[in-house]
Specification:
single chain; 362 residues; alpha+beta; Rossmann fold; OB fold (Dihydrolipoamide Acetyltransferase, E2P); 2 domains; 6-stranded mixed sheet; 9 helices; 20 strands; binds adenosine-5'-diphosphate; binds magnesium ion
């Protein structure tokens, strides 16, 4: 079982706790994304798996074996870093196969693996080039190829694509998924980029300040965020979250309110929570020029062109709400009416910041 299991793992540097009580099982053969803002402990977590950082307390298991004291070289990992270093004096083929030659892998086997990876990563025709004669994207592919040919059980990547421009990133992402479908290693992939997380991940582990915030599929992380941090971190522009009151089936924001559907009323009543925050994504708000039942009156503050759509910033009872509009049909100072889509709202316990959960009807 190519499984990785963190059991109550803490990592501190002196008094600074960088990873806190991490309990996380990464499944055999999955692509697990470690996502979170800069400094939240992603690289440290990955480096503990790689055996490049000691564990302060707790246990780490790989392949069912406790590896706290097992050196990196005996963990069957291959790694790709953001600042991949190729050997400058070796050509592409030698860079890719160096590790295998050191391991004394038979020549035929090296050739088979090399051919496959050159093909897959579109490096045919560049075999004899030195790194200095390659573009950034090609060098990145060589670094990936070098890690892939090792056929390790565990493939660890730390922001491997962040040096590439947007177009190359998209194609490298696809290649990576293809590689994985062929080799089925267990992949742990660190990124701070939520789009990368969504497109590459089978599951996402979202971290903040050393704490695991949520571990779930991209769909659930987007549609069913476990807490306010997750709701705001995933999605762009970010989820609107405002403090609200709940009264007799109504959500009250300032002097206005809208009625919840029956399933939400039931959910609130089951939750035992009494102080709420209300969340809605900008893409889940309907906008109207005239008053509508259950729509809240606001004033347009400004409109931002986002290419495929427009972000409309609205003052709602003194709070700023962002809504997405397909047309540019909104002017500063204009009165408008916002209606949250009832199947896409989020309710949180203001005290714990945790979601109150989602109605089973959804
Ligand atoms: P991420 O990869 O999520 O950006 P890191 O895991 O690299 O974050 O770092 C997490 C935190 O640990 C950061 O606040 C960083 O400053 C701190 N840190 C990392 N390495 C060390 C170290 N060797 N000594 C002290 N603090 C460190
Ligand atoms: Mg990092």
């Amino acid at each position: 079982m190519k499984e990785i299991r963190f059991e109550n793992v803490w990592k501190s540097y002196g008094k600074t706790e960088v990873v806190k009580e991490l309990n996380l099982t990464i499944k055999d053969g999955e692509r697990l994304i470690l996502l979170g803002p800069s400094g939240c402990g992603k690289s440290t977590t990955l480096r503990m798996i790689a055996g490049l950082e000691d564990i302060t307390s707790g246990n780490l298991y790989m392949n069912g074996r406790k590896v706290n004291d097992i050196p990196s070289g005996k963990r069957d990992v291959s790694m790709v870093f953001q600042n991949y270093a190729l050997y400058p004096h070796m050509n592409v083929v030698d860079n890719i196969t160096y590790g295998l030659r050191v391991q004394k892998v038979p020549k035929d086997e090296i050739k088979t693996r090399l051919d496959a990876v050159l093909e897959m990563l579109k490096l045919k025709g560049y075999e004899n080039r030195l790194p200095k004669d390659l573009s950034g994207g090609q060098r990145q592919r060589v670094a990936l190829a070098r890690a892939v040919v090792k056929k390790s059980d565990f493939f660890l990547l730390d922001e491997p694509l962040s040096n590439l421009d947007a177009q190359l990133r998209v194609s490298a992402r696809k290649q990576l998924v293809k590689i994985h479908e062929m080799y089925k290693q267990t992949i742990v992939y660190v990124t701070h980029d939520q789009i990368e997380a969504m497109t590459v991940g089978d599951r996402i582990a979202l971290m903040n300040e050393g704490n695991l915030q949520m571990l779930d599929t991209p769909e659930n992380v987007y549609h069913r965020p476990a807490n306010i941090f997750t709701a705001k971190f995933i999605g762009s522009p970010q989820t609107n979250v405002v403090d609200v009151e709940y009264q007799n089936g109504n959500v009250i924001i300032g002097k206005q309110g809208f009625q919840l559907s029956q399933m939400w009323i039931k959910q609130i009543e089951q939750s035992g929570v009494d102080q709420f925050a209300f969340g809605i994504r900008p893409e889940h708000i309907e906008m109207f020029k005239t008053a509508k039942e259950n729509a809240l009156k606001g004033i347009v503050k400004y409109v931002e062109n986002q290419g495929s759509s427009y972000g409309v910033y609205v003052d709602l009872e003194g709070q700023e709400i962002i809504a997405m509009s397909e047309d540019k049909n909104w002017a500063e100072g204009e009165v408008m009416y916002l209606k949250p889509m009832m199947n896409h709202i989020h309710l949180f316990d203001r005290e714990t910041t945790n979601s109150i959960g989602y109605p089973k009807e959804l």
